[in-house]
Specification:
This protein is α+β, with helices and mostly antiparallel strands. About 25% of the residues lie in helices and about 20% in strands. The chain has eight helices and 18 strands. A hairpin with a 2-residue loop joins strand 8 and strand 9.
Length: about 375
């Protein structure tokens, strides 16, 4: 299996399977001299780990990260600093229950990558799906933790935050958006009323043995203008690829996204003016990107996550010999995998922005284009 690496200058390569002894990533291209303690990465993994509420899988994984390489500390430093060499991160699997998957060993879950892995490779790891499992995203969050520490140095004031904005047919009220509320409910919802509604909705779905999809929105503020390049290195192009690479994602939008198709040119145009602090825009329909280059406005991306394929309701399928069969999936599964996708989307946003910051420095150095200044 090839293509396990993402990024140009800041590159992460993830490895490992859902039910193997461990998983992790190798981060290459991290600048030297950045303070990087294990707990800095662990903070973000703790937000993603399973078993934190009754609405996620009850698999109990501590997700304790270990830094195996790429940092150095002695009595002359104030802590472990990156050396510029590859950073290897490992997260051990400690609560696998592979026997839960013995009944589907020779069957393919409808809506799952089981069948395409088998058709491509002639073999698949049926224990939790192997590399197709959402467990792989723990390694992405670890890499994102490294990226965030570098961003603190290269782009102070930059903030990346995500929220669940839709579960099934139920959406939040944008007028009620409250970032503080995101940390107060198990859904990462910025709307308290929506979170209360989702509690009953998802509870009923779990009892019925079913699952549901979701939409996540990730917003970066304090993004410098000028990141990205025209044609084949657009930052929104890389953001779309980053979010689409997350397991179970089926759609990505930047800014107004598909809703822009219903607007007129007059409505969609983000009018421009000159303010005391530089260029100002009357709106942000573009999601902070024009021509693949950041405008300095908030960078806004949304992605849709499909319902979990591992459900208790029986579905028709075939076995590996092509015979018709019926399948149900027992075990511990997320009734809405989109819930734990919020910190994953944040991590991928951090990796993309850092990659483009490093590319920008290589393209134009410290001299960035300006408007209205001498």
């Amino acid at each position: 299996m090839s293509d396990n690496t993402f990024g140009r200058l800041f590159r992460m390569t993830t490895w490992g399977e859902s039910h193997g002894p461990a998983l992790g990533c190798v981060v290459d291209g991290c600048p030297p001299g950045v303070l990087l303690r294990r707990e800095m990465i662990q903070h973000w993994l703790d937000r993603r780990k399973p078993g934190q509420s009754r609405f996620t899988t009850q698999r109990q994984e501590a997700d304790q990260v270990k830094i195996l390489s790429g940092v150095f500390e002695d009595e002359r430093t104030d802590g472990p600093r990156t050396t510029g060499t590859p950073i290897s991160l490992m997260i051990e699997n400690t609560d696998q229950r592979s026997k839960d998957y013995s009944e589907i060993r020779d069957k393919f879950r409808p809506g799952h990558a089981d069948i395409t892995y088998h058709l491509k490779y002639g073999i698949r790891d049926y224990r939790g799906g192997g590399r197709s499992s959402a467990r792989e995203t723990a390694a992405r969050v670890a890499a994102g933790g490294v990226a965030r520490e570098v961003l603190k140095t290269l782009a102070p004031g930059l903030t990346i935050r995500g929220a669940l904005v839709q579960m099934g047919p139920h959406r939040i009220d944008p007028a009620s958006w409250d970032w503080d509320e995101v940390e107060r409910n198990p859904f990462w919802a910025p709307d308290a009323k929506a979170a209360a509604q989702w509690t009953d909705y998802l509870g009923d779905l779990r009892k019925s043995g079913d699952s549901v999809g979701a939409v996540i929105e990730v917003i970066a503020t304090g993004v410098p203008a000028g990141l990205g390049a025209p044609v084949y290195a657009k930052i929104d192009q890389d953001l779309a690829a980053a979010m689409m690479s997350i397991n179970a994602v089926k759609g990505v939008e930047i800014g107004d996204g598909f809703a822009a198709a219903a607007l007129t040119g007059t409505e969609n145009a983000d009018e421009i003016a000159m303010g005391n602090d530089g260029v100002r825009y009357a709106a942000n329909h573009a999601g902070g990107v024009l021509g693949g280059i950041t405008t300095g406005q908030p960078l806004v991306v949304r992605f849709a996550v499909k319902p979990t394929s591992s459900i208790l309701n029986p579905r028709q399928t075939i076995d590996k010999d092509g015979n018709p069969a019926q399948i149900i999936t027992k075990g511990r599964h997320d009734p809405c995998v989109g819930i734990r996708a919020v910190p994953v989307g944040e991590a991928m946003m951090a990796c993309v922005i850092l990659d483009h910051l490093l590319l920008h420095r290589g393209h134009v150095g410290a001299n960035q284009g300006s408007i209205g200044t001498e």
